[in-house]
Design brief:
Helix content of chain A: 25-40%
CATH topology of chain A: TIM Barrel
Structural class of chain B: alpha+beta
Strand content of chain B: 15-25%
Shape of chain B: globular
Largest sheet of chain B: 5 strands, antiparallel
Oligomer: heterodimer
Low-confidence stretches of chain A: 1-20
CATH architecture of chain A: Alpha-Beta Barrel
Strand content of chain A: 15-25%
Number of strands of chain A: 8
CATH architecture of the largest domain in chain B: 2-Layer Sandwich
Chain lengths: ~200, ~575
Amino acid sequence: MISMWLLLLNIQCLFIPQGSNKMIIRNNAITEDDWIVLRLGEQESAEDITVAAGKVIVPLKVWLAQRDALQQRHEIGVWLASDERPEDLKGDIEKFSVIAVDFPKFSDGRGYSIAYNLRARLGYTGELRAIGDVLRDQLFYMRRVGFDAFAPRPDRKIEDALKGLTDFSEVYQTSFDQKLPLFRRVQLKGNSPAGLVNE
Amino acid sequence: MYRYDEYDQQIVNERVDQYRDQVRRRLSGELTEQEFLPLRLQNGLYMQIHGYMLRIAVPYGFISSKQMRMFAHIARKYDRGYGHFTTRQNIQFNWLKLEDTPDILAELASVEMHAIQTSGNCVRNITSDEFAGVAQDEVVDPRPYAEILRQWSTFHPEFAYLPRKFKIAISGGKEDRAAIYAHDIGLSVTKNAQGEVGFRVLVGGGLGRTPIIGVEICEFVPWQHILTYVESILRIYNQYGRRDNKYKARIKILVKALGIDEFKRQVEADWADLKEGPGTLTIEEVNRVASFFTDPAYETLTDHDSALNEFKADSRSFSNWMMRNVKPHRVPGYAIVVLSLKKPGDAPGDATAEQMEAIADLADRYSFGELRITHKQNLVLADVKQQDLIRLWQEATEYEVASPNIGLLTDMISCPGAEFCTLANARSIPLAKSIAKRFEDLDFQHDIGEISINISGCVNACGQHHIGNIGITGVEKKDHDEWYQVSLGGAEGNHSSLSKILGPSFTFNQVPEVIDRILQVYLRERVEAESFIDTVRRIGHAPFKEHVYATDFDVEEEEVIDKHVVTSAQYSVPFYSPRF
């Protein structure tokens, strides 16, 4: 089991290039980004790790352990693992320039509910970024639940990933992006005749 | 039935484009198979033994004759001339090529159909009562709510990557015909003492490796709140359902672990701020959707037709069919007809392109052009004039869909099994054929009466063996990977129960003899008109077990060189396997 986790951690490391000036998608456009995502190595502990100067997105554990020092910084970000709770940031939400949610693999969908809760329940209005195993075909859903920034896996063309945001032009249900379900929006406009489209 | 408006059509069309591009990226190598897997599964596409299988959504089992003809067209053009109707009221095609699937979806979209979320760890196709709208015991018509739930769950952004698949069933009759106790969420739409419509909500039911009967989470959720209530159930599940072990990932495991009271507390805490929010249903929307499910133009008729009675007296085949396949309708002079896809010797649930077209014609001539697919893998013509029954029976007989066996021994449920599916240990379809052959005698079947035999190729329980009166499952043991476990005492409906394993497993050829011995005990022990399941419940497993294992089995097993080879006698198609 432990070796599985190590393997996963290794894979994650591959997804996150060290260094700065990588490209991400923010507000529907490809832009340069100079935030560094800090991930704890095996030997490192949340209490003892030295958080480098500059724009760093720290793990939730590091934030909780070094909160007093980190909140003095001009700019700080935090990221949540898929099994962590956004409620742990309650009261601190305003302190972050960016909150990221990690997708350890794209089939792990907890991050969607974390994002929804951050936006809808905790009222977070800053940048919400998807990191980890982030691929084109998830982006449409991610934006709907409240993500506005995406760091797609670096082994894929970011230009292709951008296309994922426009897969659909209409949606049925309410989520963070769409406060009214389709049936309420259509009602406001007056229903269009159903059943005639294919006659 | 429901018809698409411009929004529904646009969403389905855009899905076709999205999927076409995903297939293009897979074929060009841009997507690895591992990355493509969850994408194709959310579109109902499985890679099976011989090629790709596509599961097409039939929302709550309702289709028009036009859509049925499209199935026939797909069967001919892209498959091998037949399709398989499933226990989830869908249809599957087993012999497709990946590169054809975008075109198939485009053809389906032209008749308001799709394959969205028919597989994968998401909210699956909503299933319902096959007699909805026409059953005599109906309290509230479940179809408008099934359609509203279909739209709500389609591409729900938060619940596309759940811990595991998620199945919702909805029923609106006094008698549950949608197996709501065996679903992740089971909904019974009903009325309270004030006559207001609402839902009794069950949660945590399911079959598979750990069969559990669903428990009530809320006695009455008013209709306005059903979407938000379901949303909260899914949000709690999405966050806390287990993801470390796929066999413990269904919601039933979470509900068991937390206990229903704690689970309910969490759900209702999440629900608090949604309850009166914009996700609340409006009466205008319910009325809009319900307007698609109004009565067809029924004629004013009376129930008793003397010609029918005369013909019944003349023809035993017809009177058998009337007794088993024709059900009472709430409108005088009309009847519900179940067309059997269980002709002994054929694969349960299979229909050829010719049969599909003939059935579509029958629907046009006799039932306002509409059909339903049952979770027992048969088809229903819901609005047949009683005065048309003789002609309908004659025509249905011609196309071999009039076997008078609904609810009888040969009306078996079966998954596709090892011939098609990589998971299966059992050759489900050949076994179903072998059992049907042994008990083909109709007098014997009618004497046995109501009984359900459900066959699953493996523990995943696609054949719903846990809720069959007799359940058969393929299992593997160290020495051999094809053993058949027989269990007894399962049932669906209002008195749902899970079957219990009888004892050590059997070989393929022993199973028909095992069933014979079980039936001998029933015939010996039953009192008056007691049904099989009632006898089992009254006398328990012991007498059956004792008799089944009392003497050795005198059967020989032929050697099966490759159980994944399809016994293709039914369809004169050559066997080939593009995969190997």
